[in-house]
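User: quick one, fold this
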Amino acid sequence: MTYTYVLTDDPAPFVRRVTLNRPEKRNALNATLRGEILAALREADADPDVRVTIVRGNGPSFCAGYDLMASGEEYGVDSTEGSFQRSVVDGWISIWDLRKPVIAQIHGHCLAGGSELATGCDLVYTADDAKIGYPAVRFGTPDMQYHAWLVGMRKGMEMMLTGDTISGVEAAQFGFATGSFPADVLEEKVLEKAQRVANIPADVLQINKRTVHRAMDRMGFRDAVRAGTELSALAVHTEGFKAFIESAHGQGLTQALTARDGAFGDGRVLTHDGI
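Assistant:
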């Protein structure tokens, strides 16, 4: 398959690597990129020579989030209420349902939709200085409600109520990430982890992956994540959400982000089209 925003390679035996390749937008997710990520992962899942897949980002960030400046067509939405929220959550959950393990390799910013993509992966390794979070809660509500599950109720609540990010080190401590490494050795360490996974026969890997996800399903993980889509759809009708979107389209996204984040003093103003 030919991709527009995704690169694929095989850096080691039985290891496929899928690279988000929209670096000028810090890999902000429009419909094309989202679809290509899922298509590349399904392609790897069907390849008998692949046992594990790595997802990473080209450029300064793993993924800045959903592309706020995309048109409705680029966003992949129609007029149905909540269609976007259902679509993206279904997409990321579909990664859980792939037969073979998927590893997220996170560096730089992993925000909003980018953190949802990482949530769908089976293992997550971050750079120590990565910044992970959902700053879009400062004007809206996430599509995929992973916070309470992956970082715990108290820290999850703080992230939901402030939009503050956590570092890669903190992400590993709280449970969002599997592990964290210095940025300059992240790629090497993730490839080592992938090769360790690939040492296991593919049929055994597939069963073992399912045992963990089946257990999470019994505990309600999937239902809890899906439950947030209706709240996210309702949030787009709030005055706060509409005011931010109008500001982003009127004065530009950078200015809108500056106004949104200025009171928090966290310096998270980025010159990209993601959230």
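User: anything notable?
Assistant: The longest strand covers residues 6-12.
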